[in-house]
Amino acid sequence: xxxxxxxxxGAEITGLAVGPLDDVTALRDLLAEHGVLVLPDQGDVDDERxxxxxxxxxxLAFTTGEAPLAGHPDLNVVxxxxxxxxxxxxxxxxxxxxxxxxxxxxxxxxxxxxxxGRTLFSNQFxxxxxLPDELRQRVQGRTLCHVVTGLDLGPDDEAAADHPVLRPHxxxxxxxxxxxxxxRCAAVSGMGEEEAADTVTALLEHSTRDDNVHRHxxxxxxxxxxxxxxxxxxADHDGVVGHRxxxxxxxxxxxxxx
Length: 258
Known about the structure:
This protein has helices at about 25-35, 45-55, 125-130, 135-140, 195-205; strands spanning about 1-5, 10-15, 35-40, 60, 70, 70-80, 105-110, 120-125, 145, 160-165, 165-170, 175, 185-190, 215, 225, 230-235, 245-250. The chain is an alpha+beta fold. The strands form four sheets. Strands 1, 2, 3, 4, 5, 6, 7, 15 and 17 form a nine-stranded mixed sheet that branches. A three-stranded antiparallel sheet has the order 14-8-16. Strand 1 and strand 2 form a beta hairpin. Keywords: Dioxygenase, Iron, Metal-binding, Oxidoreductase.
């Protein structure tokens, strides 16, 4: 593998074919270090090989309420096809409202628009390391209640979970600022509603500054995998020209985390 670090988060990996892998230890370490791995020139990869690649990392996860991809029940489609208005996206993590959120998410570019449609990633390690002292002291030792929004869940599905605001990464131990979209941030432990909302706003503004965000411009054949414990992400749907179709899969857990 050849590794080229991206600023301020991520790395591009060449010399690796997406498919079933015997050992993903190096990739897990790279994800824990860089947060996002861009794997270009995977144009011959189909959904079967994409799924097998993800299974190399462990059991897969699926968000209840999403529509599975026909023939591939572990995947779902992210698409703007047939929409009269562009989708909306804010910075978030995937399925943070469960006690053990998915470790990794990956997208396979099926159809890339002629213009626009980038995916943005924020460096949540750097966001933690550069927190102003006052804001750090305000959230030290506190938890954030993540809640589900916009999905129809069953009576036995998890709909809320508390996670540390300053969360040690399960692989590296490095501390990340662990946030979600504002509507999914219901409460901060030990704070009133107004203070909690103001705090979440300040943390998100700090995390998503331009100098802390990488903007991935999709190319045909791209596969991108990221670590939900290290980054937040959002799709930029402004000014998109053409169809944007991605197939998404998620890996349930980190190694050694049951």
